[in-house]
Amino acid sequence: MRYKTIGRTAGRVTGNDYVWPLTIHIHMKAVIFDLGHTLIDYYHDWSGPEERIVSRLFRLSQETGGRMQEAEFRRSVLATLHDNRDRKLHDMLEIPLATVLENLMGAAGCNVDEGLVQDGLEIFYESLKEDRNLVPGTIEMLERVKDRGFSIGLISDVAWGLPSEYPLRDMKHFHLDKYFDDMIFSSDVGLRKPHPRVFKMALFNLDADSGSSMYVGNSLQFDVRGAKSVGMRAVLKKSGYFHPDDSIVPDHTVDDWSELDELL
Hints:
six-stranded parallel beta sheet, 2 domains, alpha/beta
């Protein structure tokens, strides 16, 4: 069985006999991970990719009947992406990119159909692929976690609200998908971290409770805050994409995947 020592009582003296401190154990059952910048690293600055996306979307609009001038089209797309980010942060709800594209391309005068929307989704994804790298040691770490008998889950906020088929492509590209017993993507459930419900979904799907589960992610604001809100142990995985916040304190912090072994 898998046990983790989390503390011990103080020793006490009864008559002439010393009673040794009691070691308290907790049965760890599940480890749940974030995806972007935790297992797979992507852009740390999204402004450049979004500029390229706008240029490619404009060319697509011109090929499909669009009448909007490039400067106006650019302002419209970038403003929508910015506003959607703010809404997602505030409401913790996902906004499907397919719906965003329908509205943007329709407003530009394009002949919107399923094929046009699919082409737009591919433009976003191709930009995402331009800078994606497996975090060193990830495969070996997942092998160790799986070999020790833990259930492994995933909670991922999908970039731009892309459908879940796209992060699944990335996971299959790096051969990560086979390690996971459950995967939750924001575009499937309509929720984004740190919404507590998405963490509860993951626990339910893995038949685990919060006290026997650990969450590992690179964001204090989304990963650590969300995990702690439902009583999970929260582990911060340091990465180059990081926003400090002294008000949020993880239970543990790891620089390298080898350090996670000591926490299991």
